[in-house]
Amino acid sequence: MAYDEELAARVRAVLRGEPGLTERAMFGGLGFMLDGHMAVAVGSSGEGLILRADPAVPSDLLGEHVRPMEMGGRGPMKGWLAVDSVRVADDGSLRDVVGRAVAFVRTLPPR
Fold it and tell me: Which residues pair with 68 in a beta bridge?
């Protein structure tokens, strides 16, 4: 597989029991969807996560290991953060960032 299977298993454990959870292979990674909305995606080994965030609120997560997501040289994508693997190396940090994505996605209407 192209994505980091160990990180995917850790994300899967955090999301276990979430209503409306599905997984979808996309862009060489693995997306975790809640009621049709991607909440988090796992990239290739060492790449980390793509995280859904409220585009209307500046994220306090931004810092050395978290930055606005950029895809295809089009500049930052509003509402998406790139999270380096080192930022989610321990389970508490992973639960924190995934929990924030879940909280935001739960404000969106189901698809």
Answer: 81
Q: Model pTM? A: 0.90
pLDDT digits (tens, 9 = 90+) for 70-105: 877 777 888 999 999 999 999 999 999 999 999 999
pLDDT value for 1: 54
DSSP 55: T
Name residues whose C-beta falls within 8 Å of residue 1's C-beta, 6 or more positions apart in sequence.
30
Q: 39: exposed, middle or buried (C-beta count within 10 Å: 0-12, 13-18, 19+)?
A: buried
Provide the residue count of the chain: 111
Written as six digits, the tokens of 64 are 């050395």
Single-letter amino acid, residue 96:
D
Query: Considering just the CA atoms, what is the radius of gyration of the chain in Å?
Result: 13
